């Protein structure tokens, strides 16, 4: 009996020792505004007004931010726990977080943006559950210390784990090249990102998809310019543009040239730059070449009907001339086509 009693006491001690102390606070907390130890002493109710003040600044810049005041940054959100949500609730929450981070990406250089991000990190743990979206949001600002600080909050381990009920969170190796940023604390130069796009065509495609306009959303200039530069520099540095590489960038091109997507001038210019590279460096199938010529011509007709901007029309005409010349040369030389 004594032995049994001792075993029970030992079991109780083990449970008590392993149970979290609800009163004891963590020594550090993840933060983009405060030092980790300082952040540990700041509760969520203190952070929400900070985030709302940042949100007001963002609303003045872009009215699309206003709707998030009653969702992601509402008083009700203080009591949310996404780890206890059912899958449908998490899916809805993720959709709201994704759309906000895409919108935030155009303004992440502002202190106001970091104030809102602080709340997303503390309340929704976006640095754990929304790694892809958070990295893409911050990537256009890769040369800033804010980018480094955000990267240092995340785990890029090549693992797949289950963190939410019936919701899979994938931590894959796509961003593992950023581990060096976490340890060195130095912002990565753009050529490092370009070289990674050359090594990993999946990353190149991810940037193409991220920057592509849709009927419901268009990125702001900083994001478009960054992604366009990454795509153009990567395509220019790849020794040979094969079928796989061409396929990965076509979505960016056709969406940018499609008037129905309502992309702005930056989207269109980026798509035309890629068209020029493809025409000069890749051997494209006749059908693809005809489609590209048609899309550029249709865009020129559409834009000319809305306003007479001669320099811009000249850019589109030059793109068509480049395509036609490349098409004519291919028909004369009869090479082996890339079928896309």
Automatic annotation (TrEMBL):
GO CC, any one term: 90S preribosome
Biological-process GO terms, alphabetical: maturation of SSU-rRNA from tricistronic rRNA transcript (SSU-rRNA, 5.8S rRNA, LSU-rRNA); positive regulation of transcription by RNA polymerase I
Single GO term (MF): snoRNA binding
InterPro entries attached to this UniProt entry: UTP10
Name of this protein: HEAT repeat-containing protein 1
Source organism per UniProt: Ananas comosus
Classification of source organism: Eukaryota, Viridiplantae, Streptophyta, Embryophyta, Tracheophyta
């Amino acid at each position: 009996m004594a032995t049994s009693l001792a075993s029970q006491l030992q079991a109780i001690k083990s449970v008590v020792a392993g149970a979290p102390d609800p009163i004891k606070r963590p020594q550090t907390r993840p933060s983009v505004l405060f030092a980790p130890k300082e952040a540990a002493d700041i509760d969520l109710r203190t952070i929400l007004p900070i985030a709302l003040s940042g949100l007001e600044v963002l609303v003045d810049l872009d009215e699309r931010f206003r709707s998030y005041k009653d969702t992601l940054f509402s008083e009700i959100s203080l009591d949310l726990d996404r780890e206890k949500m059912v899958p449908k609730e998490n899916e809805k929450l993720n959709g709201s977080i994704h759309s906000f981070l895409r919108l935030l990406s155009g303004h992440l250089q502002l202190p106001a943006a970091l104030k809102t991000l602080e709340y997303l990190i503390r309340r929704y743990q976006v640095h754990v559950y929304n790694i892809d979206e958070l990295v893409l949001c911050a990537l256009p600002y890769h040369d800033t210390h804010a980018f480094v600080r955000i990267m240092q909050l995340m785990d890029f381990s090549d693992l797949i784990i289950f963190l939410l009920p019936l919701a899979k969170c994938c931590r894959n190796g796509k961003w593992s090249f950023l581990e060096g940023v976490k340890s060195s604390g130095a912002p990565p130069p753009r050529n490092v990102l370009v070289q990674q796009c050359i090594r990993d065509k999946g990353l190149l495609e991810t940037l193409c998809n991220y920057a592509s306009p849709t009927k419901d959303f268009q990125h702001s200039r900083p994001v478009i310019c960054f992604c366009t530069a990454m795509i153009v520099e990567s395509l220019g540095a790849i020794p040979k543009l094969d079928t796989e590489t061409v396929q990965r960038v076509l979505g960016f091109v056709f969406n940018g040239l499609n008037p129905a997507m309502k992309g702005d001038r930056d989207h269109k210019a980026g798509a035309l730059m890629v068209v020029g590279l493809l025409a000069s460096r890749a051997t494209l199938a006749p059908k693809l070449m005809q489609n590209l010529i048609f899309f550029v011509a249709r865009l020129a007709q559409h834009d000319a009907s809305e306003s007479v901007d001669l320099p811009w029309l000249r850019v589109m005409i030059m793109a068509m001339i480049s395509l036609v010349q490349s098409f004519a040369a291919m028909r004369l030389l009869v090479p082996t086509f890339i079928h896309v």
